[in-house]
Specification:
single chain, alpha+beta, Thiol Ester Dehydrase, Chain A, 2 helices
């Protein structure tokens, strides 16, 4: 799994316990997963359909640098399934895991549409292809 996105935990990200608010972390994950799905599917017209159990393993505190890892695990006809792992950048301690995040590609009417992709790409060429059509 590649860890490309890093976030600094700031005071506005904390809950009353002075640890990272789960809602802030889930927002970051959903955004990063959407960007990843957009690149993999070659379209910005995709939405979050499903998130499996969210497993909070440990806390992050103000000043911690965390990193988000996202990886495609399955391509469906209209969907892509991802997995997510969040860890502390310095200590490598796991903070959270999500086994399945499913995104669905949509057509211009907002209905699921076949995307035609079957394997992970490691460049953003698919997104450029979509922009040129």
């Amino acid at each position: 799994m590649n860890f490309h996105t890093r976030k600094l935990v700031k005071p506005g990200d904390l809950n009353p316990n002075n640890t990272l608010f789960g809602g802030s972390l889930l927002k970051w994950i959903d955004e990063e997963a959407a960007i990843y799905a957009t690149i993999q599917l070659g379209t910005s017209k995709c939405v979050t359909k499903y998130m499996s159990e969210i497993n909070f393993i440990s806390s992050a505190r103000q000043g911690d640098i965390i990193e988000l890892g996202i990886k495609a695990t399955h391509f469906g006809t209209t969907s892509i399934t991802l997995t997510c792992h969040v860890r502390n950048k310095i200590t490598r301690q796991s903070i959270l895991t999500i086994d399945k995040i499913v995104f669905v590609a949509l057509d211009e009417n907002g209905k699921p549409t076949a995307h035609g992709k079957t394997e992970i790409t490691y460049t953003d060429e698919r997104l450029r292809e979509d922009a040129n059509t």
